[in-house]
Amino acid sequence: MPENTAGISAGTLLAALPDTVVVADGDGRIAYVSPSVTTLLGHDAAALVGRPLQVLMPERLRRGHTEGFSRYRATGEGKLVGATTQVPALHAAGHEVPIDLTLSRLTPSADDEPGDALVVAVLRDASTTILLERQFEVSRYLAATLRVTAALTEAPDADVAFQQLLPTLCTELDWDAALLWQADGDRGRLRHAGTWTAPGADVPALAADAPRRLFRRGEGLPGRAWQRRVPVVMENLGTDPAVVRQDAVRADGLRTGVAFPVLRGDTVLAVCELFSTGPRPVPPELLDVLAHAGRQIGQFLDRLRAESHVRQLADTLQRSLLPSHLPVIPGLQLAARYRPGADAALVGGDTYDVMPLPDGRWMALIADVCGTGAEAAAVTAVTRHTARAASAVGSPAEILAAVNAALLHQQGDAPLRFVTACCLVLEPAGSGQRARLSVAGHPLPVLRSSDGSAEEVGTPGRPLGIDADVSFSEIELDLTPGSTLVLYTDGVTEARDDAGRQFGEDGLLRVVAGAPLDAEATVGAVAAAVEQQLAGSRHEHDDLAVLALTVPR
Question: Which terminus has fewer CB within 10 Å in the chain: N or C?
Answer without folding.
Answer: C
